[in-house]
């Protein structure tokens, strides 16, 4: 070590210390380094801190630095940056509070004993000051991340909760984070702080990469704030603070965007809230939130099951059932054929049981159900009973029912091709009543066909309902390409950009894997009509859109403005109906079914304009729209 140290111009250099071959001497030197670093004012301090940051990211479970006082050192450095602005502005010290808070978060994300050491080292007060915004949003991001890790553990949560302002600050940050990042960084390229740009891109990118990373970090700032709030939401005493209408109503719209899709974000917090009796009451009466949960439950969102859980708990609670039943039941009926979503098994059975309990509770006088809702539940229960009966039916009888349903379906296809959309929808309804419940592939086709008719009849809610039923019946769940596309268009008609975007992206993914020549992507090219819809919805669901409208980046809801910079071509942003007219990527009808009769397959030519209703160019082939 002496040889290495003599060649280094910096006495006590951390990198030289780490090269010491004697473990005992190295530990003693590292301990000394951590103790002395906060009191030193030498240039180049950011270098060992960035090295520690890399080590913490690569080896977060290594206890050596924890035992030697890294938490005390990092807390002291954050305090120094907060109290000594002259030091903070010198050399590259502006980076140090960020790295210090990040190091604390990395070492506490997996190990509870490390989190306990961090609390004992006094890291919470300086992190709270960063959370307040004493420096910038960049430091807020890593502070809320570290506090979220500390709040995760039972042994350290009380220390976090003892700082009463943390919950309020996190709620405010969750609601304002996107606007903060947009107005303080994204909006004005020439005003961006250089150290922010360096941290975002590691010095490897230009303005475009800075903007993309800013969107990702803004999403993380919001999602990590929600994660911290979620730790408080498990404790009933904090629910009154969390369950304020102005906050609850925003939660369904906090979804992480495409840049942070691994976070359950707002719906994850809603699930925690709805799991508790004290939380369900405020959710049930919050305007718009039940409709939003129903949309998420019907969507192809990765967190669909969380929304379903919320709806089930609200429906099963006698104190909230009557407040939500009219909106919740239609959504759950559409979802009753789901079997599995990821690791969540038998969701459909849970839905059916909950709906059955609704009927029984009405019989006991515990609640009142409208005739319309009662009829929907009873129809579902009859279909489930019908499925059981069919298990004992002779195969010959099932084949007769299948044949009858096929005949009626073909009549519906013929009516559709002749332009009688309403008549076709009625025929598909008749075919569904004849088709055995066990013929799931054929029922997928019929529901999807009828969804297409409802689209053309300008009935998007009915189209969403049928497309959702088709997607629930399909195996794998939520992967029936044409139903995804139809539902994407229906969501577009309702202005639900996020839901439309997710379905459109999944549609493209399914097309890339399909063996159907009408769906498969030719030469790996995304269909023009799908690309246009995705681009449109990406703009409408853009993470910064609300902030950009507020701060003048977007001049109106219908004007793209300069959201995506000067390269944006407004001519591309057509409505879904405009984008479908006159292109080779038309939404054809035609799909595999369970009849396995190739002679019955037939391709129809592209329809003339007389077959196009309200701008949606969709053609009915022999088997499916």
From TrEMBL:
Where in the numbering of this chain does the ARM repeat N-terminal plant domain appear?
Answer: 6-244
The record, for InterPro entries, names: ARM-like, ARM-type_fold, ARM_7, TPR-like_helical_dom_sf
One Pfam family name is ARM_7
Compositional bias of kind Acidic residues:
567-577
Q: Which segments show compositional bias classed as Basic and acidic residues?
A: 598-614
Location of the region described as Disordered in the Swiss-Prot/TrEMBL record: 554-625
Q: Which domain of life is it from?
A: Eukaryota
Q: What is this protein called?
A: ARM repeat N-terminal plant domain-containing protein
